[in-house]
Amino acid sequence: MGVSELLAPSSLDHYEETVLPGPLWRHALWAAGITVLGVGLGWAGALFRVGPEEYGLPPAAPGALWPYLVAWTAIGLAAAAVLRAAAARVPVYAPGPIAVVLTLLGTRLSLGWRPEAPVLGAMAAAALTAAAIWCAIALRSGSLDNRGGGVTSGG
User: In whole numbers, what is the pLDDT of the chain averaged over residues?
Assistant: First the structure.
């Protein structure tokens, strides 16, 4: 692949809206891989401070990491499963990056501040709500296209 192919406008559209059909095991493997990537990047990001100490995101607080990693693995799996389920029916814009970012941010914030269970639950609800809204927008767009409301070509 040459430089001109990398810079071509068609190659920049990595997150094209496509339907992602396939067997259940492929969907489960995708959701697991996306979740591991998000949790891993969040954990790696928690190893150092982001920004100055006065207003930067703190590094991982002392204490047990595993409860937060397990919690965000479960939350990430749920978010990825919701996004993949919608993408199996209608075109969804960038379901993988959305699931990774939601999981990464939740993991990173949880490891930096170690929230109590109610706050962690609120963070989980926010992440899952964001994933559900993303899917609802795609499903709504898909249902409008299926009704014949789209522009047709021809005479």
Answer: 82
Residue 60 has φ and ψ, to the nearest 5°, of -55, 125
pLDDT for residue 143 is more than 80: no
CA 116, CA 85: separation in Å to the nearest integer? 31
d(Cα 29, Cα 32) in Å, to the nearest integer?
A: 5
pTM of the model: 0.77
pLDDT band at 151 (very low <50, low <70, confident <90, very high): very low
Ordered DSSP codes for 71-139 = HHHHHHHHHHHHHHHHHTTS-BS-HHHHHHHHHHHHHHHHHHH---HHHHHHHHHHHHHHHHHHHHHHH
Q: CA triplet 85, 118, 60: central angle to 5 degrees? A: 85
Spatial separation of the C-alpha atoms in residues 70 and 47, rounded to whole Å? 17
Residues facing 18 on adjacent strands: 92
